[in-house]
Write a structure and sequence with these properties.
Elements: H1 6-14, E1 19-20, H2 22-32, E2 40-47, E3 59-63, E4 74-77, H3 81-88, E5 93-94, H4 99-105, E6 111-114, H5 119-122, H6 126-129, H7 147-156, E7 158-162, E8 168-175, H8 180-196, E9 207-214, E10 220-222
Parallel strand pairs: 1-10, 4-5, 4-6
Antiparallel strand pairs: 2-8, 2-9, 3-7, 9-10
Length: 229
């Protein structure tokens, strides 16, 4: 078994309870973040869903009021007048018919957007984009004719989320240097969006457990029953 580093042992010392309220949790994350880069604030939410039932799987987008605290790099596949609109919206890269060049750059992008008339081109990269979760999708608003606003929303703080095979959603909601208020407002915006996706057949509690963590830190369970959502 791999031994815990001194840094992780110190983090664990600060986690003395099994469940914390959200303010205590954020305070511990800030107190124990001691790496040389700006860590992300990540959340994991275990949902009361049956992922074997297609209608219970969750997939949606939400606008975080304070963004993610980082530059989101976008790659756009489009044609005609949308090329100029993509430039105006400050897309980081617009596909220009060089497949080999795109293959080399794929890993540099966070989000890929396509207009419907360019999806036949995007399909050529399906074997690369699919495993990386980068394939454009209508539900994520990344297949759209409104290229300009799609890019603007993503740059401003719109995130995509979906559950994994175990019914857990993992996502980032900001950076460790955000204020406690900013972190909480991003978190509650995410939760409100998630609640709207609750499948109608789900009875009882939608959330099983909610955990906060930083990129390199330990996870902390919060008491979601007192969130008043």
């Amino acid at each position: 078994m791999k031994k815990k580093s001194k840094r992780m042992k110190q983090i664990k010392k600060n986690i003395k309870k099994k469940i914390y309220n959200i303010d205590e949790c954020i305070n511990i994350l800030k107190k124990t973040s001691n790496v040389k880069f700006l860590e992300s604030i990540d959340i994991s939410i275990n949902l009361n869903i049956d992922t074997k039932q297609n209608e219970q799987n969750i997939k949606n987008v939400v606008m975080l009021p304070h963004g993610l605290g980082k530059k989101i790099k976008t790659l756009v596949f489009t044609k005609g007048k949308n090329i100029e609109l993509a430039k105006q919206a400050k897309a980081d890269y617009i596909y220009q018919y060089n497949i080999e060049n795109i293959k080399k750059k794929i890993n540099k992008f966070d989000v890929i957007i396509s207009s419907p008339d360019s999806m036949s081109i995007v399909g050529k990269f399906g074997h690369i984009l699919g495993p990386r979760g980068l394939m454009p999708n209508i539900k994520f608003e990344t297949i759209t004719n409104d290229i300009f606003n799609a890019i603007k929303k993503i740059k401003k703080g719109q995130i995509r989320y979906k559950n994994d095979k175990n019914g857990i959603i993992h996502t980032s909601i900001g950076k460790i240097n955000f204020t406690t208020t900013q972190i909480k407002e991003n978190f509650f915006a995410f939760l409100k969006s998630l609640i709207k996706t609750k499948p109608s057949k789900i009875k009882g509690e939608f959330f099983k457990k909610i955990y906060f963590s930083t990129t390199m830190g330990g996870s902390i369970q919060i008491n979601h029953s007192d969130l008043n959502i």
